[in-house]
Amino acid sequence: MSQPADREQQRRRRRRGDPRRPDAVGAAGAAGRRWLSELAEQGTLATHLLRWIVLGSLSGVLAGASSFVFLEGLDRVTEVREDNDWLLWLLPAAGLVVGLAYHLLAGRAGKGNELLLDQIHEPTEWVPRRMAPMVLLGTWVTHLFGGSAGREGTALQMSGSLTDAASRVLRLRAEDRRLMLISALGGAFGAVFGVPLAGAVFALEVQAIGRVRYDALVPALTASIVGDLVVLGLGYQHEARPQFGLDLTIGLVGKVALAGLAFGLAGAAFVELTHAIRSVMRRVRWAPLRPVLGGAAIVGLAVLFGRDYLGLSLPLIERALAGEQLSFAVFALKILFTAVTLGCAFPGGEVTPLFVIGASLGAALAAPLGLPVAALAAVGFVAVFAGAANTPLACTIMGVELFGSAATVPIAVGCVVAYVFSNHRGIYSTQRIHTAKGPGAIDGGPTLGSWSSRRPDAPPPP
Predict the structure, then answer these.
(1) In a shared domain, residues 291 and 145
(2) CB within 10 Å: which end of the chain, N or C, has fewer?
(3) Residue where one domain finishes, among candidates 203, 233, 263
(4) Residue 334 lies in a domain
């Protein structure tokens, strides 16, 4: 074949895309375009990562700074109350002041954590900026005069309010605002308890039962780490917890699972009693009177059963983790004191009281189950919260961060079993049910509040 004919045949093959004669230049061009596309994609991801690290850090700084102010003030008011026993008698009057303030000024801010979860599900309205100062001052007043409440709710509300205010200034769109609110939860939880990994997972897990929001992973982890570092950097020291380890056996797992059942039922009892008291208090038409009645009830309970159950009740945790055998009455009374305080509309959180309930119940169950008191108290510390908040993953990680990796398996078993046996109940009524805990299906993603009202034995909604 002549050379011109050969060249013409090669041109025809190239035009037909004949695989017997690939175009080396064309193949190299395609490969180059593919690599350029992948590099552009990696650049977009890097920009996205950097953006959310910056925004998550902003949320973490706000969470850490507000948590530091709250924790320092809480320590001071607790010292004042413990040095002045007579302050307890003023709790009904303090309830009137707090009740009037929320009745006249709070508006939507009075919905607290429920509002934050609502806005994560459907970001339609800004979180009120007054939520942060109101819950801060209200919680300090609650603890100053002896109400039984915790820290987490206050930290979450302050962080959520401040972070949403920052989102408003930055003019973030609704989906970005949703992620910022999730990061606010992580930053507050990690900062107020000193558990940055658990804080991030809590924020991803708490919005819906059976779902983890991985789209918020970067800002939530960033905010939780930064929030914890800010609190530590400002000089606040969290309580040091003892480290535990147990030899893993089938018998141990079975005993811890049995204890986990009790922990889950304790969390459910706390939720049900708190909701029942709220339902009764709604019959009191003038809202500021509700904390007045609750304050009087707490004073009466303290006269009958002592002052160990006022405020955070951290000495009860210390006794349990030190290996002291406690009676079953201790956890039951802490449930009662806290349910009355929160059910009657005093500001404050639920989590630290749940820690007390779990640790004291674990210390009471240890002897019947033949387990070390301190170790089972540590499992109960996080497991009751796992059941009441429906966050078994976050609570398992929290247990490891607080009590050491040697106790990972018992902590995980306790948290998971407690989570299952708390059923579809929880301290956050606007938490949604994404996946049912049992064999039945729950369609439509209802909130815990709406789902509980469907049960035959549930009280009618207000």
Answers:
(1) no
(2) N
(3) 233
(4) yes
Give the N- to C-terminal CA distance of the chain in Å, as an integer: 95
State whether 312 and 223 are in the same domain: no
Of 356, 297, 329, 3, give the one whose Cα is nearest residue 149.
356
Contact 239, 395 (CB under 8 A): no
- Whole-model pTM: value is 0.90
What tens-digit pLDDT sequence spans the chain (462 residues)?
Answer: 455 556 666 565 555 544 444 555 667 777 777 787 778 788 888 999 999 999 999 999 999 999 999 999 999 999 999 999 999 999 999 999 999 999 999 999 999 999 999 999 998 899 999 999 999 999 999 999 999 999 989 999 999 999 999 999 999 999 999 999 999 999 999 999 999 999 999 999 999 998 898 999 999 999 999 999 999 999 999 988 889 888 889 999 999 999 999 999 999 999 999 999 999 999 999 999 999 999 999 999 999 999 999 999 999 999 999 999 999 999 999 999 999 999 999 999 999 999 999 999 999 999 999 999 999 999 999 999 999 999 999 999 999 999 999 999 999 999 999 999 998 899 999 999 988 887 876 777 788 888 766 654 444 443
Q: Please report whether residue 283 resides in a domain.
A: yes
User: Looking at residue 383, which CATH number applies to its domain?
Assistant: 1.10.3080.10
Please give the residue range of the domain that contains residue 351.
Answer: 250-452
CB 259 within 8 A of CB 376: yes
- Structural domain total, the chain: 2
Task: Characterize 415-446 residue by residue with b for buried, 16 or more Cβ atoms within 10 angstroms of its Cβ, and e for exposed.
Answer: bbbbbbbbbbbbbbbbbbbeeebeeeebeeee
What is the 3-state composition of the chain as percent helix, strand, coil, each rounded to the nearest 5? 75, 0, 25
**Helix, strand or coil for residue 344?**
coil
- Three-state SS at 431: coil
61 φ/ψ angles, rounded to the nearest 5 degrees: -65, -45
Phi, psi (degrees; rounded to nearest 5) at 213: -90, 90
The crossing angle, in degrees rounded to 10, of helices 408-421 and 373-389 is 40
